[in-house]
Amino acid sequence: MLTQTMITESPRLADRPAPGRPPGEGRLLGGPIDLMGACMSFARNEEIYGEGEPAEYLYKVVSGTVRTSKILADGRRQIGAFYQAGDMFGLEMGDEHTFSAEAITDAEVRVIKRNAIAALAQRDNDVARELWTLTGHELQRVQKHVLLLIKTAQERVVGFLLEMAQRAHGSNEVDLPMSRQDIADYLGLTIETVSRTLTHLATTAAIELPTSRHVVLRNRAALTRLNG
Amino acid sequence: MLTQTMITESPRLADRPAPGRPPGEGRLLGGPIDLMGACMSFARNEEIYGEGEPAEYLYKVVSGTVRTSKILADGRRQIGAFYQAGDMFGLEMGDEHTFSAEAITDAEVRVIKRNAIAALAQRDNDVARELWTLTGHELQRVQKHVLLLIKTAQERVVGFLLEMAQRAHGSNEVDLPMSRQDIADYLGLTIETVSRTLTHLATTAAIELPTSRHVVLRNRAALTRLNG
DNA sequence: CGACCATTTGATATGGATCAAGCGATGTGG
DNA sequence: CCACATCGCTTGATCCATATCAAATGGTCG
Fold first, then answer.
1. How many structural domains compose chain B?
2. Is nucleic acid strand D under 7 Å from B104's C-beta?
3. Can you say whether residue B4 is alpha, beta or left, with left for phi > 0 and alpha for psi between -120 and 50 degrees?
4. pLDDT tens digits for A58-80?
5. A205, B17, B70, B198: which is deepest, by most CB within 10 A?
6. Where among A113, A129, A148 does a domain terminate?
7. A144 CB near a chain B CB, below 8 Å?
8. Which residue of B has its CA nearest to A138?
9. Which residues of B touch A122 (CB under 8 A)?
10. B20 CA to chain A: closest CA distance, Å?
11. pTM of the predicted model, to two decimals?
12. Which of A120, A148, A176 lies at the terminal end of a domain, its last residue?
């Protein structure tokens, strides 16, 4: 129960050239919060914020994929979630980030000052409601994550694939922007187990693996069954 | 990865004599929501609401302990949380309960109509904020739960004990109102593993087990270390 | 082409599940 | 009030899923 990722890199940031004005604006319908903030770019593997840093901003993915993660005392890493275009992340109840966030691919992220939102929510019920809804969705997501973590390795991997497919508007063609290590740390498994399980699913024709980062779901019925 | 609790009993309820007026009122300081609702009593093992039922109420534990749980397709049970005096539960984003709730011990629960709160929150920012805060705390709780579930059996059990101790205002004397099966289903372990781990902790003098439902934390330092 | 990194594959070890008793409390009926 | 059934918990023996250790393969970038 050790090893997993022992951290590789993570370019320091936070102090960076001031963010410019919103380029890719208005993506994904949403409330007033969608109209706020500036857009920033992050390179693959760049840290967006670190665990324990003051949570000054709220973030929305414009393009690319972001992961949140936490390094445990003994070096194990747990991934909290993967965020893709349209997803918001970084909202905290306290004033510190309890996870860190890194760009998995090159990514554009809209960055919104927390106290700006707080001020707005004070006066505007819709904004307040939007924040609550966001928190509620996160809660549901994490609850599903708990249900994944009590299952067998195969069920976890299948659950993950179905989750990714669902996000890709239900398509059977799923792109995996994250590494096997990321998947493993999300599912509480080792990289080897993830790899073997995928290979096995391919062998049994439930999925196809044209490349290691691209999955085709071939037999939904079988996958749904394997999902437990 | 099967067995675990196959459900035992669960007296139907919902349709019950109309709840009376609040007897034990005003426990635990809180916002406006604390002043609302009627008090109901539930017997040990009685169901408070079922998975999939319309979420018409919000609940607050006055006395006793409540668990929320979910039965998976194959019969496995996952416990979402244990709630004790002062804790609120049953708040849902959708309009159905995603878990069921049962009284672990005889319990008194304050029951507040959801649409009453919703109406209030519409006008009163403090109420709205209180709902958001509640959701946020649940989120933090579930996130901690995820971190528990990726650990070893011993770490999970120790983490659970420390969590229970913390709730008992940090005392070293911890009462466990729930069965070994409940603990196992909360931690994603079997009853045997929970039992063995507790025995082992007692053997190594980290804890004492005067009775199976009462634990004394003897060596916090050791426990904290074992917590990972 | 060669170095590096991600992924796969293979061999072995092990933590926790499973199967199976045993034991101590609690409660019930005789 | 005691005998017995029941229930929750513990303990023991064995098995198996997944981790661990190790190496080969393949893809990418200089």
1. 2
2. no
3. left
4. 999 999 999 999 999 999 999 99
5. B198
6. A148
7. no
8. B139
9. 125
10. 31
11. 0.89
12. A148
